[in-house]
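Thread: Newbie trying to understand structure tokens

Hi all, I'm a second-year student working on a class project, and my supervisor (Dr. K.) asked me to get a predicted structure for one chain before our next meeting. I've only ever worked with sequences, so writing a 3D structure as a token string is new to me. If someone could post the tokens and maybe explain what I'm looking at, I'd be very grateful. Here's the chain:
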Amino acid sequence: MKFVSNWQDLPSLLLPESVMSLLKTELVLPFEDEYSAMSFWDEVGVTLIYVEPDDVPEDIKSQVLNVIHQLIVNPEFVVRLTDDYYLMLSVTEDNGNGIYLLFHPDCPLKGIDLLISMAESRY
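---
Reply by user tm_fold:
Sure, no problem. This is what the structure looks like when written as tokens:
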């Protein structure tokens, strides 16, 4: 599992370039450009949580697991980036701040199957 709170740290997710490109496209979508998205992330403190394919709930700290479960039951949207990557956003504050959850369809977390059924295919 990886956490990213700074736009410049997105490459640390070590995603295939094609997936990173789609992810950035999706993250920039609500803004005029990438600079505006980066500024928003810095200003309000957006976080992206990447649940990797080999992550198992038993290895995740209970506090983090509780946060993830709260996100899963409160999605703003879910989009299928590719067959292997889905992105969900849960808005957590009135100023638009939220937490993104990037996950694999085989992710063993409770509620992921519901998110997949809700996912839009934009790409």
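A couple of things are worth pointing out once you decode it. Residues 17-28 form the longest helix (12 residues). Strands lie at 2-4, 47-51, 77-82, 85-91, 98-103, 120-121. Feel free to ask follow-ups in this thread.
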